[in-house]
């Protein structure tokens, strides 16, 4: 698996490169945002790891420009800041996940494995998991077993899109609230539960065997054990 690491702290970058290569990742390294953007545009990567604070062009800008150019490579954002606004900015810029420095190496590796399991094959405009597909053009949910489909609301679509993108991983209510609503509050936590219920009803309507499972005290994950 080929990764791009864009990190201006050279000591940290060297440690990460050594760790990732020991884990059998192929790593390209850039120390500034401008060369990082050049690498994004001229190479194909399985995952990109972007630091936020970079000379020349910051990680938010790289992520945003990459998405504008149609590059769908999963992005893990590294930030020294823990404020919610920075997490929101990263996700809104197109990042798929974030880690706040300092972090444990095993958490970094776990996040990379989760991003590597993503099954976003949208050459035909769909995102797929189990017996469901999302049509990105019409925002429709399709059950591939019986070809039944139904239109999703914006929030329902984004919930399923985020769950599919992180299949095999349990997403917390905080992650869902930040990704879908863009900010964190008790009201938004309630909204996560409400829209989970709406989304489950849409899955049931198309008679899908894919389920959104609640993991007590943690969050939600997609499962499809009988397709």
What does this structure look like?
By secondary structure, the protein is of the alpha/beta class. The chain contains eight helices and twelve strands. The chain has helices spanning 10-22, 33-42, 59-68, 84-93, 105-116, 154-165, 173-181, 186-205; strands at residues 2-6, 26-30, 47-51, 75-79, 97-100, 126-129, 132-135, 140-143, 149-151, 171-172, 211-215, 219-223. It is elongated. The two termini are 29 Å apart.
Blueprint of the fold:
Layout: E1 2-6, H1 10-22, E2 26-30, H2 33-42, E3 47-51, H3 59-68, E4 75-79, H4 84-93, E5 97-100, H5 105-116, E6 126-129, E7 132-135, E8 140-143, E9 149-151, H6 154-165, E10 171-172, H7 173-181, H8 186-205, E11 211-215, E12 219-223
Parallel strand pairs: 1-2, 1-3, 3-4, 4-5
Antiparallel strand pairs: 6-7, 7-8, 8-9, 10-12, 11-12
Helix pairs in contact: 2-3, 3-4, 6-7, 6-8, 7-8
What attributes characterize this protein structure?
4-stranded antiparallel β-sheet, 5-stranded parallel β-sheet, 12 strands, alpha/beta, 227 residues
How would you summarize what this structure contains?
42% of the residues lie in helices and 22% in strands.
Structural class: alpha/beta
Count of DSSP E strands? 12
Q: Count of DSSP helices?
A: 8
User: How would you write the strand order of the largest sheet?
Assistant: 2-1-3-4-5
* Average of per-residue pLDDT values: 85
End-to-end Cα distance, whole Å, is 29 Å
**Order of secondary-structure elements:** EHEHEHEHEHEEEEHEHHEE
Radius of gyration: 18 Å
Strand content: 15-25%
What ranges have pLDDT less than 50 throughout 5 or more consecutive residues? 119-123
Principal-axis shape equals elongated
Sheet bearing the most strands, described? Answer: 5 strands, parallel
What is the helical fraction, as a range of percent?
40-55%
């Amino acid at each position: 698996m080929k990764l791009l690491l864009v990190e201006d702290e050279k000591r940290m970058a060297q440690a990460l490169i050594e760790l990732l290569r020991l884990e059998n990742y192929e790593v390209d390294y850039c120390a500034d945002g401008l060369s990082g953007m050049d690498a994004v545009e001229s190479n194909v990567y399985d995952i990109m790891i972007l630091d936020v604070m970079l000379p020349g062009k910051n990680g938010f800008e790289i992520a945003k420009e990459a998405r504008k150019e149609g590059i769908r490579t999963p992005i893990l954002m590294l930030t020294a800041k823990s404020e919610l606004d920075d997490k929101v900015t990263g996700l809104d810029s197109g990042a798929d996940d974030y880690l706040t420095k300092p972090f444990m190496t095993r958490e970094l590796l776990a996040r990379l494995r989760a991003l590597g399991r993503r099954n976003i094959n949208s050459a035909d405009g769909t995102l797929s998991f189990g017996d469901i597909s999302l049509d990105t053009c019409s925002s429709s949910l399709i059950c591939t077993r019986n070809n039944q489909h139904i239109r999703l609301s914006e929030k329902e679509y984004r919930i399923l899109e985020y769950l599919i993108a992180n299949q095999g991983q349990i997403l917390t209510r905080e992650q869902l609230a930040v990704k879908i609503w863009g900010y964190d509050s008790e009201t938004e936590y309630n909204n996560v539960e409400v829209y989970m219920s709406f989304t489950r009803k849409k899955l049931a309507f198309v008679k899908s065997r894919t389920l959104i499972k609640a993991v007590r005290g943690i969050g939600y994950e997609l499962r499809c054990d009988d397709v």
